[in-house]
Every structure is written in C-alpha cells, then in structure tokens.
Design a protein that fits this description.
Shape: elongated
Distance between the termini: 48 Å
Strand content: over 45%
Number of helices: 1
Strand order of the largest sheet: 1-2-3-6-7-11-12-13
Helix content: under 10%
Length: 241
C-alpha cells in the first residue's frame, strides 16, 4: 500500500511540474487594459458591432477609458424576406446606417473578485461624438422577364417585392454615402471573469442613447428616427499590464 502511495505521489508531482506555473494567478492589480469586443444590441443584427476599449487606472477603484465602436444601426420595422432564387433582402429598406462612435468614460469597481475565484463587477458611463455613414441599400430588381437592374431601393419605382431577386454586392454604393453627425451616451454594468491579471474575459450589459443632427431615412415608407436607443450586450476579451 505504501509503495502504491509513493508511486502515485511521484507521478502526481511529475505531472504537476510539467505545466508552467502562472505567477499572476489571483493577482488582479493592473494599471492598463486593452479590450476587444463583439456587440449584440436591440438595433442591430446577429452581430451588432465591433468594439475596442483602452483603460487606465486612476486609483484603487476607478479607471478612465477611451474606446471606439463600429455598428450597423437598423430600423425596428425591418423585415427580411426570401426571393424566388433563395436570396434574402429587406423590403422597403433604402439606406444602411453605419455608426462610428469614439467615446470617453469612467469605470467604477463595485465589487473586486476574491483570489482565484469570483467575478469583478463595475459600473461605467461614457459619452462621445458619433459619425453616421448613410450608405444606399441596393437591390437587384426584375424590370421584365429578361432585364434586371441593380440600384438603390426606391418605393416609387420598386413597388412589387416579388420582382426583387436579391441585394447588391457588399459595400456597393459606399462611395455615394451621406454623413450625419451626432452624439452618444451610454451606461453599463461590467462583469469580468478572468483568473489572471494579464488577461480579461467578461460581459458588459448596458443602455445606449444616440442622437443625430437629422432624421435618418432607413425605410422611406415608415417612421424614421433622429434619436435611437438600445439595450446592448458586449462580450469582450483582452489583456492587462
């Protein structure tokens, strides 16, 4: 029995020493963080946008940060249909809205995690300008049985959705885009799950209010907005030092 126990202890010690030990386990003191994220929000699609965030420590419980987001903003009335060819399109949509949101904010740590376990919880708020790129939404439309055209959707011309065969190429018409200027403000709760100081993984749950200097004509035949509000979730991953 003693021999078996000694063999087991020897094998365990060898296998344990074979793995490199992290000296930052349970150490959460850091001065800088750089995070990348994927966003899901109530005004977007399956993936609402991309996020980058850089933070700097102010004191033991407070950080300042700046970031930038790129999102595709949709009208709540958008509905997707399939064509006779199996393609999909959004009937009535005339424009895309791509929002570029640089912002600055503060983050307050509410609950620090215990060593090697737990979740760090923090609250944050941010504000910044918004650049809205209004790009035309192109469709492929059957004029008759032998002729098709690819052009921006116009409710006065493209009256039958059964004549729509698909959409234009990705980013087609981006060179004919218009711009709108605005501002964004957001507030959120952040949950961070990482066990190492050098990396971070977590979720950000929040609310965003965004306004532009003019109404954005996403769907000409329905009510269009100048102010957008949304709830969002961002999954992020990054590193710290």
């Amino acid at each position: 029995m003693k021999l078996k126990f000694l063999l087991f202890a020897l094998l365990f010690s060898i296998s344990f020493s074979a793995f490199p030990q992290r000296d930052d386990i349970g150490n959460y003191e850091y001065d800088k963080e750089y995070l990348f994220g994927l966003n899901k929000n109530t005004n977007g699609g399956l993936i609402g946008g991309l996020v980058f965030k850089a933070g700097t420590r102010i004191d033991d419980s407070q950080f300042s940060f700046w970031g930038i987001e790129l999102s595709n903003v949709k009208n709540p009335k958008e509905a997707r249909y399939n064509t006779v060819l199996g393609n999909s399109y959004i009937f009535g949509k005339s424009n895309y809205l791509y929002a570029i949101r640089p912002h600055y904010g503060r983050e307050l740590i509410l609950f620090k995690k215990a060593p090697n376990q737990g979740v760090q919880v923090s609250a944050l708020g941010a504000i910044g300008p918004t650049l809205g790129i209004i790009a035309p939404y192109y469709i492929e439309y059957a004029v008759n049985r032998v002729e098709t055209v690819t052009e921006q959707y116009d409710p006065e011309i493209h009256q039958s959705r059964f004549n729509i065969l698909g959409t234009g190429r990705l980013f087609q018409g981006l060179g004919q885009s218009d711009v709108a200027f605005g501002a964004t403000v957001k507030a959120a709760i952040n949950f961070e799950f990482g066990v190492f100081k050098s990396s971070a993984t977590g979720l950000e749950l929040g609310y965003m209010l965004e306004g532009y200097s003019k109404e954005i004509p996403l769907i000409p035949t329905t009510e269009n907005n100048q102010i957008f509000q949304s709830a969002y979730l961002t999954f992020f991953y990054g590193f710290r030092k």
